Amino acid sequence: VACTGGRRGGPAAAAAALSREGYEPRATAREIVLANCPFSAVAADHPALMCRMNLALLEGFSAALPSLGMTARLHAAAGVCCVRLEVGSP
Questions:
Q1: Helix, strand and coil in the chain, % to nearest 5
Q2: Residues 82, 14, 50, CA angle at the centre, nearest 5°?
Q3: With CB atoms 3.0 to 4.6 Å apart as the test, which of 69, 70, 80, 82 could cross-link to 51 if both were Cys?
Q4: pTM for the complete prediction?
């Protein structure tokens, strides 16, 4: 997943990178909601495993963009990915 570093573009730049990976992100100034889980076929049979794996993947994504101050959190909700990215102030 490639995304230009720095605050330039902010959550919108991070959302663009996630979109290329199939997440269908919806970015606001404070969070990125992932409308799709690219792992949904496997998650249907193994939700706990896939949600934890997805959380770890998105924690790494967030760590690679420290200037955005993003935090990946499990946030189970119907019809969206189990992980949300909260955007803070670096």
A1: 40, 20, 40
A2: 25
A3: 82
A4: 0.82
